[in-house]
Design goal:
Blueprint lengths: L1 H25 L1 E4 L4 E4 L5 E2 L5 E2 L2 E7 L8 E7 L4 E2 L2 E2 L4 E14 L5 E4 L3 E4 L5 E5 L5 E7 L8 E2 L5 H6 L2
Antiparallel strand pairs: 1-2, 3-5, 4-7, 5-6, 6-13, 8-14, 9-10, 9-11, 9-12, 9-13
The structure holds manganese (II) ion.
């Protein structure tokens, strides 16, 4: 029994150290004028102005394959940055890992999202998500059942709609 506990403890200790050294290696401070978020994942590539307002960076973390038809990725939104309106044919889950921002399903009030928030958006519902004006946002996105499609992009979120989010 004691031996078992010791083994469990050493595995725990090893994994904690393993995780922290891994984090240190990949850790990236994301700097901007107004705040500083700690990136868990690399920042990735800037999202195009056709689908994002402001500076948003995307990196794919998990590709879909024939068995797991799910994609996972990370987006870092600088303050004021947001997605266009869009929908996901199979829905989307967002897990906010840092910062403060907004999520809005069309026709519903804006939801304030921040580190620790989890958002479920149903299939084929128009929504947008992004950072607050003063603080950036980091989010993990999970899109299941990608055989149905990943995203359908629509028009930009106007400053008027965005300002109403405050
Ligand atoms: Mn979305």
């Amino acid at each position: 029994m004691i031996a078992k506990v010791k083994i469990v403890m050493s595995v725990l200790v090893a994994s904690v150290f393993g995780l922290s050294s891994c984090n240190n290696k990949n850790e990236e401070k994301i700097n901007n004028d107004k705040n500083e978020l700690t990136g868990i994942f690399p920042k990735g590539k800037k999202g195009p102005s056709e689908t994002f307002t402001g500076n948003a960076y995307n990196i794919g973390l998990v590709d879909a394959d024939s068995i797991l038809t799910t994609v996972v990725g990370n987006v870092y939104f600088e303050p004021g940055a947001r997605s266009n309106w869009h929908s996901h044919p199979a829905g989307q889950i967002l897990i906010i890992t840092d910062g403060v921002g907004y999520h809005q399903i069309e026709g519903q009030p804006v939801e304030i999202i921040k580190k620790g928030s989890i958002v479920k958006c149903p299939p084929n519902v128009r929504h947008w998500h992004g950072a607050s004006a003063d603080v950036g946002l980091q989010q993990l996105y999970i899109v299941p059942n990608t055989e149905k499609g990943i995203v359908n992009w629509n028009e930009a979120v106007t400053d008027e709609v965005y300002k109403r989010a405050k």
